[in-house]
Amino acid sequence: MNRKNRILLLELTKTDFKLRYQGSILGYLWAIIRPLLLFGILYLVFAKFLRFGSDIPHYPVYLLVGTVLWNFFIECTNQGIQSLLIRSDLMRKIAFPKWIIVLSATTTALINLGINLIVVVIFALFSGVSLSLTWLLVPFLILELYLLSIGLALLLGSINVKFRDIQSIWEVFSSALFYAVPIIYPLSMVTVYNAFYAKVIMLNPIAQVIQDIRFCLITKETETTWSLTENPVLRIAPLLFVCLIVVLGVIVFKKKSKYFAEEI
Amino acid sequence: MKKNIYAIEVKNLSKSFKLPTEKSSGLKQAIFNRLKGIKGYTKQEVLKDISFKVKKGEFLGIVGRNGSGKSTLLKTLSQIYVPDSGKIKVNGSLVPFIELGVGFNPELTGKENIYLNGALLGFSNQEMDEMYDEIVAFAELEPFMNQKLKNYSSGMQVRLAFSIAIRAKGDILILDEVLAVGDAAFQEKCNQYFSGLKGEQTVIIVTHDMENVRRFCDRAILLEDGKIIKDGKPEKVAESYLKLFK
Q: What is the pLDDT of residue B1?
């Protein structure tokens, strides 16, 4: 990345971050409050009333990790897809690499995740989760999720420039996807019901990352893609899928971005 | 080795746009068109086989009616649009001003907008720190810097934008209709600035004001329907331009 692009990325990210909570009294605090409130609701409904996850140690932390990561994924993809339309003015007026727009939008989400993770860690320590060396693996897993989000944002964002339906389709699809990822329900519920379904669920890289992070952070009893299957191909399938999306996203974006200025 | 005396060389440049024939741009329409074998757009040729060269240090004016392709030409030179065919060779760094105050955000303060706009021109925070006072002084907006931009009058916004723009350093400046800025007093400042550029810097400017063409330009090009129909002395080109409307 050359100097000019670095300056641009930094300033656009700063502006995004500033504008996100403009005019709200609590300002940046919303970055923490929103996922916490969502977590509170899910906790009440699923853990307290429906009694999900009573067999899992530190289930509230377990749930919080899931919601925070899911939030990050959704924020990243949605902001990334929309960012190209929001910044259409820039693209029509100056020449610069367009991926900077997507990168700056997702960086804002990354910063929010960072703030939220601090909350998660504090919450985890208070709940009696013990520190462990596997915590050090968490950044790599987050990187995997981030790459998946960027790949999707590049891919869908570049199509969305011409076909605005993509944004709506993605919103519906992602809310369906939410139920296909073990966030509000523990994976063990699915395993008991049908082990095959559980394996299918865990091929999804989002599910794999969330379960792996729970494994590293909270309890080694967490079922992961690795623990559910012996097949080496299936074990790395989620990672391969992430690579595929990233490569596809970069190729499509590269091809389409040349014409953003005139098509938008 | 022969020294390259040209700042910009344009050879056989053509550019066309696909204009959608349907109002809605959406997936449904795209699939529908594909099925029916309709293209769904008409091709409009905006620049047709244009060739010209700009010498280093030259002040070139581009004139023409609305829709003759001036802005498209500037945007193609600025690498915002990709040409269909032909070649553009640029020797040196190029700073385009298709519009003043690109990226200005009404929700940010004047100060924040200066830094944002500066970043779009390639200036780091530290560089902007050094220039900040001069920019504000030139714009004559000292008391307003911590106000949100939405509370500025349009004249104030343009003055601010212009004051940042003239800080930009590049071998070639490209300006689209940005000469007429602010009130009479500020105009005078702008004119001084442009006079100062003359002979020093390569400038390409699009304008409708023949007064400015005569005053600043060394050479002018008249565009009509995507072609260069006149290329030469500013007085002559201005004359031909005015004749178009008779």
A: 46
Domain ranges in chain A are 28-263
**Residue B120 and residue B78: Cα distance in Å, rounded?**
14
Tell me, yes or no, if B151 comes closer than 8 A to chain A by beta carbon: no
Determine contact: B155 vs chain A, CB below 8 A. Answer: no
Domains of chain B: which residue ranges?
6-244
- The verdict on A176 touching B (C-beta cutoff 8 Å) is no
Q: Tell me which chain B residues have a C-beta less than 8 angstroms from the C-beta of A10.
A: 119, 125
Interface test mutation site (partner A, options B46, B81, B114, max chain A beta carbons within 10 A): B81
ipTM: 0.82
d(CA B213, CA A140): 60
pLDDT per residue over B127-169, tens digit each? 999 999 999 998 889 999 999 999 999 888 888 988 888 888 8
The mean pLDDT value of chain B amounts to 87
Give the three-class secondary structure for B189.
Answer: helix
Q: CB of A259 within 8 Å of any CB in chain B?
A: yes
B6-244: which CATH architecture?
3-Layer(aba) Sandwich (3.40)
